């Protein structure tokens, strides 16, 4: 959803900017298509790099936990016990459970990673899935304001109207997860996109062709 919204705002603003400059519809289509491809690739590469770096960081931290559990099992058990004590477990019971857990190094690593780092090493997200979904969703969003031109429109306003409708729908759909009023969420997203398009439109009008 956020990838699609990014594509919507980016291409609406781009099309509004070049359209405000008074260029021909064919050139606007070329510009919008280039913006779609460039933005989708950028989003995909960015997500891939971000998720892969996150996974590598988690893997490094988990490897560090494994080394510490191997070298200092008692100290690590006491550290885990203190965490459980703060959650209300009796000290003796917390230390007994933590020490018993340490006998299974793989399970101990998993629990320590969850309790100390807040991550589950067995549930690392895929950078390829993140990159692919971002690429596709951005492309879908960026295509919406371009569609009127592809269907034969010769003026800027149908493209802006299509983009605005897409922003409203995207905002309304997000309200399903945020518990906001759907129309309020849709209007908010529409206004944010309109601000971006308005700014680039004014730049296009000032600079012109």
UniProtKB/TrEMBL annotation:
Show the InterPro entries listed in the entry: Ccc1_fam
Primary residence: membrane
Keyword hit for Transmembrane helix: yes
Subcellular localization: Endomembrane system
**What Pfam families does the entry give?**
VIT1
> Is Amino-acid biosynthesis given among the entry's keywords?
no
What is the official name of this protein in its record? VIT1/CCC1 transporter family protein
Organism, as annotated: Dactylosporangium maewongense
Highest lineage ranks of the organism? Bacteria, Bacillati, Actinomycetota, Actinomycetes, Micromonosporales
